Amino acid sequence: MNIIGRLTRDAEVRTTSQDKQVVNFSVAVGDSYRNKQGERIEQTTYFDCAYWLSANVARLLTKGTLVELTGRASVRAWISKDGEAKAGLNFHTSNSKLHGSSKRTETVQATTGTGNNKTEEDLPF
Fold this sequence. Notes:
Elements: E1 2-7, E2 12-15, E3 21-34, E4 40-51, E5 66-79, E6 85-99, H1 102-112
Parallel strand pairs: 4-6
Antiparallel strand pairs: 1-3, 1-5, 2-3, 3-4, 5-6
């Protein structure tokens, strides 16, 4: 699955009890549609993301950055301390790409070990 959205906060690196590092961040994905009355409805979906491949990417994942993520989504549900039912979406990221300056995009691709060394200037359109 692919999602494109903006980070809602700076990424954080956590270390698990097994000494593995994970980068955690949140992404807001916007969508809009028209209802039966012709009104435009704006909808935002929030994903809590985890990236396990390289902690170095965290320094590039700052609030407001537009990212394209590949991975898998999962749903989690829990009961809050108030006894209220809650639900959220997790996104287990396997690949990330920054959208913006080509230099930042190349840096993320190099850090994550993906990419084909093409920049936005190399695109035919």
